[in-house]
User: What shape does this take?
Amino acid sequence: MTLMRDDEVSASATPVEAPVEVISRGRLVLRRFRRRRLALAGLVVIVLLYLLAFVAPVFTPWRYDDLDYAAFLSAPSPSHWFGTTKIGEDVFAQVMRGLQKSLTIGLLVGVISTSVSAVVGATAGYLGGFANRVLMWVTDLLLVLPAFLIIAIASPWFKGANWLVFVALLAAFNWMITARIVRGMTLSLREREFVLAAKFMGQPAWRIIATHILPNMASLLIVDATINVGVAVLTETSLSFFGFGVQPPDVSLGTLIAAGTGSATTYPWLFLAPAGFLVAFVLAVNLVGDGLRDAIDPSSGGGR
Amino acid sequence: MREQLPADENPRGTDEGGHRRVVGYLARRLAGYVVLCLVATFLAFTLAAATFNPIGLLRQRQPPPPEATIQAKFHELRLDQPIPRRFLTWLTGVLHGDFGNTWQGQPITDELWRRAGVSLRLFLLGTAVGILIGVLLGVWSAVRQYRPSDHVITIASFVILSTPVFVLGTLLKYGALEVNDLVGSDYLKYTNESTPGFEGSWLASLGDRLRYLIVPTITIALFQIGFYSRYQRSAMLDVLGSDFLRTARAKGLTRRRALFKHGLRTALIPMATLFGFGFGLLITGGVFTERIFSWHGMGEWLVQGISSQDTNIVATVTLFIAVMVLVSGWLSDVLYALLDPRIRVRS
Assistant: This one.
């Protein structure tokens, strides 16, 4: 803006401009996200699925462990919306129950693994030296270990209330790659003036990491958490498919799909119901994650 | 020996150590991988040895075996020794080519080579097809960005990536069934890896194996295609907007030549790291594919080993997987070094 002398100001013919709207970054991201219809559709699907899984069982006449002796392997009908299994369980109730389990596990693992990777990556990057070497060595080691194998071997411990152990193990094998990315970004943030100012003011390291470094990576962490939810659901379902995840008598989408795979040509609803919901959820999560990433990245092509 | 220009005439500085540096870099990566391999196998062995209880399984047999047998088995499996010592015994055996026995006494080594052949056949073919088609689709998609073909490929990739392998495999099985019915033949097979008791020339038996290979290979390849095409698309998009490509066009290269000769090679550089990582993903996917199509490969063996509480099987399969990941990771390092000339100048 050029500086004008006092007598020039009144003479200049600048029209009265509308006050400039300063929009916060969050609102900007939201606006860009709303423009991408696929991502929006994905978000709607996710919300609907969560509502369906936790609210719908209240309205259905059958519970997931009820056995209807009058209807074995019956096709979808008004009384059994998704049909019944070989021993008379209502498939809809089972799918909802499995969906509850899978959605909960997915959400928990996504949040936990992103948090762990944020803390580990930022600490390694900020402190440097010995801490950095140790943490990176642990990261490399966990990357090499076959996650499937370890969780499979540990699976007998997941019975009953111990499904949290399962969640912990899933999260433990999911944080490594993001931790490296966070560490890289911390290395560049470490030399910025506001971080140095905080350091010289005497703030302890953990405070600097929590209040200055991590909030600057919020967008990366949000996208990562979203994607991790999808990956976690897929991993959990895969393990449950083999019987190494959620243990009977509890059901998950994986166990349901495993039960339905054998008879999928003859009794397709046993397979298609859980598989369909699984694919729908993971697809929706992937779309939302992709949309978020495009909305946050200022250089990606406009509002297409 | 290349003639060396004096440093001030050669704008890149001397490249004398260049090739030696690359070899040194690759050798160091290899050494690192071998160490990680051993550590991973040791950890898997320890976990398995600590958790498994084959003696418990033995006791549950009907009729219950006499105590003397149980004690004999206990000593045979060296269960009284500390776990690191058991690992070392097993490892020394491995270095002599003997992978030990299952706890029921069957030798593992022959089983290993047979099953490895079955699995590798599937994985290598699936990966090759997946990488080739994935890269091509990614490039095509990037070149035709935002046109209908790009949207179709993008959405298809998303859907495939969101479908777990066991769902995809099952769906393809039924697809094969439908195709067989439609055409009225029995060509596409989806159980086992070859016809039992097949007699014929080498070529005929190859043709027979092919029938069984098609559907499982498509299952593995589809996932890889979805994965690589997404990343290749974004890598290619980065390259398409770059200056050097514009310069190549301005200098008169046709679009196709500029794209393939200069653009693709640069876009492949980040993909080289991904190929190694993708093979690791493939192994887990391979386990499901083997299960669904009843292939008697390493994946099935691993699940069997865990169910039957056999430490040696678990350790062997872990070593196999670790070596596979090592080889693919190292090959991708080699590819990276070949594609990216900056490696030769940096140390």
